[in-house]
Amino acid sequence: xxxxxxxxxxxxxxxxxxxxxxxxxxxxxxxxxxVAVAVLHVSPITYWQAAGLLILAKILFGGFGKSGxxxxxxxxxxxxxxxxxxxxxxxxxxxxxQQWRNKCRTWQCNDTPNMH
Length: 116
Prior knowledge:
The structure is a single chain. By secondary structure, the protein is an all-alpha fold. It folds into two domains: about 1-60; about 65-115, no CATH class. It is built from four helices and no strands. It has helices spanning about 1-40, 45-60, 80-85, 90-105. The longest helix is centred in the N-terminal third of the chain and has 39 residues, at about 1-40. It starts with a helix and ends in a 10-residue tail after the last helix. The model is unreliable at about 70-75 (pLDDT under 50).
């Protein structure tokens, strides 16, 4: 009984994701054909060209790193976090590290944040 619940949930999510991508491609096509054609005097594009533009934009601007994990593992925390880290006791530091380890595990990442 529980397996069918999760299968339905996964299939429902997959259907929503596919519908979102198709809808986003349609929006890109409409925007391109309504705005870029008039302003930039370029040719109109088809639906599949719009989908290709989305993929190209993801490659050029989005990257393919670990989603969710980039915010905790291997990236700096900024000036405020460094100051906070410097003012923590060793016990507080260890508790903080453990919290981030747990958070990263939920994101499929086992690295520890760089806190030096």
